[in-house]
Amino acid sequence: MKWMTRERARVDRIACPWLIARFIDPTPEFRFVPAARVLELAQREAAIPYDVPDVELGHHGPACSFDAFIERYELSDPALAALAPIVRGADTEDRGLTPESAGLYAAATGFQATSRDDFDNMARQFPMYDALYAFCRAQTRETPRPRVLFVCLHGAAKSVVGAAHFRRLAAARGLEIDAVAAGTEPDAELAPAAVKGLAGDGLRAAPGRPRPLTIYDLQAATRVVSFGCDVVPAKGQRVDQWDVPAVGDGYGAARDRIVANVERLVSEVAAEGVAGPFRA
Asked: Which residue, among 106, 112, 113, has the nearest Cα to 90 in the 3D structure?
């Protein structure tokens, strides 16, 4: 994927590419352009804009763009949750937010001043973020909640329905395990039939719009369910292939097949015990 932001990066616009390259996109292409042209060029080049006003992956209230990426791509690693306020404090005026924020701001300012360009800045700062992430892992006792990954082509219907019903049935069994949905070629919006059907079942469609399969998804999943996609988990996790009719051809038929499969999967997970948590 192509990612675009303002040139002359310092904190957030280096932290976000680090997060993208380490946890989201295995083959990212980064572009740094004049601030006034980010949205124009992003639209022209089919790039994802970030850390500019009025975009999803930007500042919202006290939260910075790094926070927006964690939320959008469902990065549930507790070490990232610990790293986020360090970045937020360094990127905003709230330098006292964490003990590390002021130091990160100072180091990032120095790297910005001494780097040849934004790409040189990234290359020099990425090891610092690797070190901060390792520090946060060492300081964090909490482990990520295990989760099942549901994958379909567009991330807009089958995977969303499967994840929603898995969360419902797992909670009913008292299982501490989550579920997420992603697409290998995600659509811009969720399928209306899936959203309406889940609402009729008393369930919420999540994520709010389709998102791509990420590095973290393939590393963190306890089990993977694929609806006809070629998925290769990072650690050899089991992949189940489910043959389900299209949700657009009738929500009821698709839902019944998915729920029957989910019921078996929940029983298997309950019998096996929850797998160990992901650690990078």
From this structure: 106
Q: Which candidate, 206, 245, 173, 220, places its Cα nearest to that of 79?
A: 220
Tokens read off for 146: 């295990």
- Please check the confidence at residue 121 and state whether its pLDDT lies above 90: yes
Secondary structure (DSSP) of 246-280: -GGG-HHHHHHHHHHHHHHHHHHHHHH-PPPPP--
The tokens for 186 are 């995600």
CA 85 vs. chain centroid, Å, equals 17
Q: Averaged over 127-132, what is the pLDDT?
A: 98
pTM for the model stands at: 0.93
**Residue 231 CB coordination number (10 Å):** 20
Q: How far is CA 185 from the centre of its chain?
A: 15
CA 179 to CA 161: how far, in whole Å? 11
Q: What is the pLDDT of residues 47-88, one digit of tens each?
A: 999 999 999 999 999 999 999 999 999 999 999 999 999 999
Q: DSSP for 86-153, please give it.
A: HHHHHHSS-TTSSTTHHHHHHHHHHHHHH-SSHHHHHHHHHHHHHHHHHHHHHH----PPPEEEEEES
82: left (phi over 0), alpha (psi -120 to 50) or beta: alpha
pLDDT given for residue 274 in this prediction: 59
- Side-chain half-sphere exposure of 84, counting CA atoms within 13 A: 19
CA-wise closest residue to 93 among 105, 82, 84, 83? 105
Question: What residues form DSSP beta bridges with 224?
Answer: 149, 239
